[in-house]
Amino acid sequence: MRESEARFRAIADDAPVMIWVADPTGDTSFFNRLWLETTGQTEAEALGFGWVDVIHPDDRQAVEETFFRATAGKEPVRSEYRLRRADGSWAWVIDVGQPRFSANGTFLGYVGSVLDITERRAAEIAQQEAQAFIRSIFDSSPDCVRVLDMEGRPLLMNEAGRRIFGLNEGAPVTGQTWDSIGRASDADKVEAAWESVRRGKTARFEISLRDAGGEERCMDVISAPITDHQGKPFRILSIWRDITDAKRASDEISRAQRHAEAAADQLSSVLESTMDSVMLLDADWRVRYLNENARKLLQVGDEALGRVFWKLFPEEEEGSFAKHCREVMDRRVRSFFEDHLSSLGRWVEANASPTRDGISIFCRDITERRRAEEDTLLAQKQMAHMARHDMLTGLANRMFFRECFEEALNESNHARMAVLCLDLDGFKAVNDTLGHPAGDALLRQVSTRLIQAVRSTETVARLGGDEFAIIQPLMESRDEAFRLAQRLIDTLSEPFSIEGAAATVGTSIGIAFAPEDGTSADELIKAADIALYSAKSSGRGTYKLFDVAMHAQLQTHQQMKITMRDALAKGEFELHYQPLVSLESRCVSCCEALLRWRHPDRGMIAPSEFIPIAEETGLIVPIGEWILGEACRQAARWPERVSVAVNLSPVQFKHRNLVRAVAKALSATRLDPARLQLEITETVLLDESEHNLELLQDLRRLGVKIAMDDFGTGYSSLGYLRSFPFDKIKVDQAFVRDLPHGKESLAIVKAVAGLGQSLGMTTSVEGVETEDQLAVVDSEGFNEVQGYLFSRPLPAAEISKLIAAGSL
């Protein structure tokens, strides 16, 4: 017994876990060396209940209650708590104690181990999340998954199974056997399958049943045994897949559960309680002991006991793992190391210590951790690259471009360089007609051409959307930047092939120079952006050099944005109305509301100047609501035969309150909804067509009329007439200007007139200015005309007089 106790103390002191022993009263009578080193306690301080002093105050009561409750019942005890280290820091530990009994059953107390799990706690949280994930898969599986006892009585059933049996959440599943909804004729095959499962085999068969809704269903059933730790079937896993509609059979769900048995003696009870793989080798390297974890790690059984370790794993004998073990054996010192066991293909974290007659090795399988570390390192490299590069094109992104810019400025000591900012002309049309994947493909091709067009010393970046920038060190003069800009314009004007379709775009470029236009990245990029804005405003397909006057123009543009925000509140907006004349009665049938801005200083500002700014800033939304209310209020004063038409901006369709704004205007003015015509352009359907079609349907349900304005100028007008039943189509004035002599325009006008008649839509023509144009339109059977031949847009008071005048 003294030799056994000495061996136990030696092994316990060499173990990499903290080990304790308690007597039947709960007083601790032993702590190994690692506990004392970790906590800084002396053995006298730790014994009895002194160990409680190093437990975190927030955890102490729970640990004590757990320990005393287990002691009273002579049951195993297990706690997780924070332990104060000798340096004052706190470590999370797991404390496991096993009760000890004598041969006659007398309770002798506990032997336990305490493992530092501070680093492992994160892994356990991940494991808990994985278990929750598996449970969610079980609950969300479309297949019926049931766990039965060996007699076929249900113990557990997922949500899909509950739906088949018609069970509410929380209702017990006991008693819901298959024959409660299945056919009696399937009983033999079910019983045969269960008998096969009882023999440890998987069975597959089909049954027919009537589900909770009374519908006949055919189920492909897989029944498999769930075995206990001895490999003996003790539950039945039954998976039902609905194959009524020829669905594929579901993946089998099986989960084996294995439980470790308590060891027969004191040593195994201690070592089996640890989470490590434990090996004891004698001086001749023969295997004397392997705990269950070690057997799993090494993939061996009892046959390994007594054999030389290097004979079992000859590939390791000359390797690094053997070198570390021999050093421990020869020098009698402890060694902690990580190594790769090539014969097992696993990484291990090993703690080897000399014993009285050999060596003890505590191992942990860290293969997944090493893989995770490698994956993390790779991910960090990828993230660092992604953080500085555009994912679509691989070019430098805005952040990396700024870094390169600042570096170039610093290295050159303010030497001459140029920055070119460019974006694509016509890119939106490609996106709208061919789709966003085609737009992405175009951007990648553009990036390739840009890289090919510049020198290796020049940096190309994508700043976002279709906007690019280039840093160009100047070797000789500014002409280098001008030549590069023209080369880029020529290169990007060549047609692109996108998914078999030809696409043509162009580019506008702004150029700024250092140090003349700025000495920092922010200053130069801003200057180049201003020059780009000027290039786009002057007709596109060109390049502009920054000058101070451009900045002033941009400030004027910005000032108009600011002024416009107050214009609505100050009542500076007003509506003019242009009549639409019925060709049948020659009377005004509708008036189109047109927005005007009477600025207190600048006078009347043209809509072409301020409406794009209103759309750019989003102010068109509140302005549009005002137009709706004002137009409906004015129309309510006209004869009932006269309607009012209001143009809607595509920007208004991006706001969910559009339908509410129309309904509010109608309600406030009590205007008959049928007298309100909402005019849209094809751009509304090009952008978020599904969403916008839903809004058009909601507007139609209010009772208003929907008209397509500028018909024929878009990309797929006929397709839009099929996707939404418009009440009116308005032919764009571009097809009227060269009537009656223009053959192409005449053919289009005739086609639209016939199309409107066949679809039952009102047809209207804009821009009629001469009697000859009117005669052609009238002869083709159009319903309405609009143009200067009848009237220019008029203020509200004058349009009322025109309506009252009768026929025109």
TrEMBL record:
Residue stretches making up the EAL domain: 557-807
Domain GGDEF: 415-548
Pfam families the UniProt entry points to: EAL, GGDEF, PAS_3, PAS_4
Domain PAS, residue spans: 4-74, 130-169, 263-298
Residues annotated as domain PAC: 77-129, 203-255
Keyword Metal-binding: no
Keyword vocabulary terms for this entry: Plasmid
Protein name: EAL domain-containing protein
Species, as recorded: Sinorhizobium kummerowiae
Taxonomic lineage from the root: Bacteria, Pseudomonadati, Pseudomonadota, Alphaproteobacteria, Hyphomicrobiales
